[in-house]
Amino acid sequence: MLKPRSFRNIMEKGIQEFQQVVTYWNLRTRWVYLNDMYNTWETLKQLAGEGYDEVTDTFNLTESRWAEILEILPKAMRFKLNGLPNREQMTLLFAQI
């Protein structure tokens, strides 16, 4: 989780650059959402094993394998057709958490 000082800096940037007030609640909600997305993607990579193609950032799985994985991890459905958006940045933010 970000430190309060980091949130304060982000809120100030939001006002300066976007002329929009960004509240602590807005930032925290988005942070939790992105962290959850990243963790789901990491878990899916582990479950897919060799079915993950790092070059294309996609999963090459059969429909039956997808069905098995989606029973365990329903949130992984978002990654059936697309990879993780901003993968490098998300990894920097959440890999060490």
What's this model, at a glance?
This protein is mainly alpha-helical and 97 residues long. It is 60% helix and 4% strand.
SSE blueprint and pairings:
Elements: H1 4-18, H2 24-48, E1 52-53, E2 58-59, H3 63-72, H4 87-94
Antiparallel strand pairs: 1-2
Q: Order of strands across the biggest sheet?
A: 1-2
In round numbers, the mean pLDDT is 88
- Portion in beta strands: under 5%
What portion of residues is helical? 55-70%
Count of distinct strands: 2
* Cα-atom radius of gyration: 16 Å
Low-confidence segments = none
- Total discrete domains: 1
Total count of helical runs of at least 4 residues:
4
SSE succession:
HHEEHH
User: What structural class do you assign from the helix and strand content?
Assistant: mainly alpha
Oligomeric state of this protein = single chain
**Kindly, what is the distance between the CA atoms of the first and last residues, rounded to a whole number of angstroms?**
8 Å
Note the overall shape.
elongated
Protein name: Myb/SANT-like domain-containing protein
Domain Myb/SANT-like: 3-68
Organism: Kingdonia uniflora
InterPro entries: Myb/SANT-like_dom
